Amino acid sequence: MAVRHRLVKASPHAVWAVLEDGTRYADWVVGTSSSEPVRGHWPRVGSAIGYEVRLGPVGLRNETVVRRCEPGEVLELEAKAGPLGTARIAIEVRPWGDHCLVKVDEHPLRGAGGTLHNVAVEALIQIRHRAMLARLASLCEAEAAEEEGRRPMGQVVAPQPHDGGGARA
């Protein structure tokens, strides 16, 4: 089971805003070249995003389905990869002072991915997660900086509901 975490210098609310935007999936998920909601209202349980993985001139279409969602906190997905099978990907967003800790936990469920899962595959997933979390952090931190830049000097910002209720760690 590949588990990785990263401190993101943005509020949990800002991170969740990116996760709940189905059109931005390809912006932070490594390996995808495009994405679009195909069923339901993302990220409600049962909704799905279609995405494309490009390998040179070849493009493979697959989808990811939401299996569990606790808005602002937990998003569990089932990523379908055709003949490779499916994987469960759980993303947790936790307040951490003014920032948040994002944790990704992935493991294969069915198909060749589950059958061939070993230490080498686990290492590749860890590398992919490191890049994926870096992309997510970069997006969220850039948007947080942009939002901060638009705020008038001296303006006090009320904490978001999922920011830990204003408590500072």
Please give the structural blueprint.
Layout: E1 2-8, H1 12-19, H2 25-28, E2 32-39, E3 48-55, E4 58-70, E5 74-80, E6 86-96, E7 99-110, H3 112-115, H4 119-150
Antiparallel strand pairs: 1-7, 2-3, 3-4, 4-5, 5-6, 6-7
Instruction: Give the strand order, joined by hyphens, for the main sheet.
Output: 1-7-6-5-4-3-2
Please give the share of residues in helix.
25-40%
Structural class: alpha+beta
Mean pLDDT: 84
Report the radius of gyration as a whole number of Å: 17 Å
What coarse outline follows from CA principal-axis ratios? globular
Features:
disordered C terminus, 169 residues, 7 strands, 4 helices, seven-stranded antiparallel beta sheet, alpha+beta
Task: Describe the 3D structure.
By secondary structure, this protein is α+β, with helices and mostly antiparallel strands. 28% of the residues lie in helices and 39% in strands. It has helices spanning 12-19, 25-28, 112-115, 119-150, and strands at residues 2-8, 32-39, 48-55, 58-70, 74-80, 86-96, 99-110. A seven-stranded antiparallel beta sheet has the order 1-7-6-5-4-3-2. The chain is globular, with a radius of gyration of 17 Å. Residues 163-169 have low confidence and may be disordered.
